[in-house]
Every structure is written in structure tokens, then in C-alpha cells.
Write a structure and sequence with these properties.
The longest helix has 39 residues, at 28-66. The radius of gyration is 22 Å and the shape is rod-shaped. The protein has 73 residues and is mainly alpha-helical. The protein has helices at residues 2-7, 16-19, 28-66.
């Protein structure tokens, strides 16, 4: 969802122009893209961290089974 919203170059929510913006110096497109990055990057970082933890556990398991000094086959 964040990727899609970040890549769109038009205002997806034009009705926010009616209620005003808390930061008028930021354009609606920039505001939309900042919000999309906020909902896109942190979950992606959690997925990457979980993948690294699982890979580390896998390597430790393999080293325990075959020994750390075993030559790669």
C-alpha cells in the first residue's frame, strides 16, 4: 500500500483540501508521499530484521550439526 501511494503523482485524497492542512508549507503530494513512506518503511524493516534473525539461527544450527570448521561442499 505504501509503495503504491508513494509512486502516485496526484492527490489521492482531494477532500483534505476542504478541511485545511496543519502544515501549509508542505504540498499535498509531498504530504501524501511522506505518509506513504511512514507506512511502508518500518514494516519492511521489521520483515528484513526477522529474515536476518531466521538466517542467523539457520547458520548456527548448520554449524552445530556439521561443525564450524567443515569445508564447504
Amino acid at each position: 500500500m505504501g509503495t503504491l501511494i508513494t509512486s502516485v503523482h496526484r492527490d489521492l485524497y482531494p477532500f483534505y483540501a476542504l478541511c485545511g492542512r496543519p502544515f501549509p508549507s508542505i504540498s499535498p503530494i509531498a504530504d501524501q508521499q511522506i505518509g506513504a513512506i511512514i507506512i511502508w518503511v518500518p514494516p519492511a524493516m521489521m520483515s528484513a530484521a526477522a529474515t536476518l534473525i531466521v538466517l542467523h539461527a539457520f547458520v548456527r544450527h548448520e554449524e552445530a550439526l556439521f561443525g564450524a570448521d567443515a569445508p564447504p561442499s
